Amino acid sequence: MTGVTVRAPAKINLQLAVGPLREDGYHDLVTVFQAVSLYDEVTAATVDGPGEDVVLVSGEGAESVPAGPDNLALKAATALAQVAGLSPDPDGHLEITIRKRIPVAAGLAGGSADAAAALVACNELWQAGLSLEQLSGIAAGVGSDVAFSLLGGTAVGQGRGEQLSPALASGEYHWVLAVADGQLSTPAVYRMLDQLRAAKSVPDAAAGPGALDNTLMTALRAGEPGAVGRALSNDLQAPALALFPALRKTLNAGQELGALAAIVAGSGPTCVFLAADADRAVDLAAALAGAGVCRAVARASGPVPGVTIVANGLS
Ligand code: C5P
Predict the structure, then answer these.
(1) Which listed residue (40, 114, 145, 213) is catalytic?
(2) What is the pTM for the complete model shown?
(3) pLDDT at residue 296 tops 90
(4) What CATH architecture is 2-168+304-312?
(5) Number of separate helices (H) and strands (E) present in the chain
(6) Ligand 1, residues 15, 26, 27, 75: which to mutate, most atoms within 8 A of Cβ?
(7) Matching fold, domains 2-168+304-312 and 173-302
């Protein structure tokens, strides 16, 4: 068996401005992504003998990751084979092994990370030779956040979130993640936003998603966590709270325990807290774990690079 192992980071959204519902069921976004140091590890390997491609999942929340053709990593691998014009290998099949550390359906783009990881690992395994640009094109077809998982760093996303441009960001940001006891479905959170807007419970989206927050971009360029914290925003926070009201207690607890800022991650239900520095993140994580307002606490810093190859077992 020959295999390639890569790791892919979780993401958080520093700004997530959502426009009105489009005809294709998506919403136009203006978002600022940051990749953070919480990783899934994915191995793509060729196993001798004919058979269906398989996905093996272990680790955090593995039981709720689909192992069949609905698995995003497998979808990504299939799309890559198609674009690269590769025909099925009569002597072997693909085995994708996912070791999860990014919580599932948590607003941290764990599934997208696995898909991005599969693209890089299979491109290498099959010596397909596709460029990052070509992989990004395939990524966008698999999911809105997959292209960012490939790229990493800090980046502005537009369109569905797949049109990316790297953002200038200085410094290192120290995040504490409160993982909720439960999951939220991304489509359900977007639907709830549409409902809240229709009921005028939250401000309506004007013609589009609005503008990139210049205050946030200036704070990122200056590397000032306090100013970044004050500028964090997420249009999906109100619908996530409507669907998962207990998150309000989690957000409040983090703020009372000294976080610079507290926000729901993407479509939730993970809550993320920005700490002033690494030491304060350690203290905040310990205090939050003791407060009993979430299932688990993790620390992560950002920005970190996108998908990276960690072992290449090709002979
Ligand atoms: O692209 P992805 O499959 O990750 O999106 C999951 C769901 O989230 C979509 O089917 C859609 O309901 C919602 N979504 C959206 N607008 C976006 C991204 C996602 O409405 N820009």
Answers:
(1) 145
(2) 0.96
(3) yes
(4) 2-Layer Sandwich (3.30)
(5) 10, 12
(6) 26
(7) no
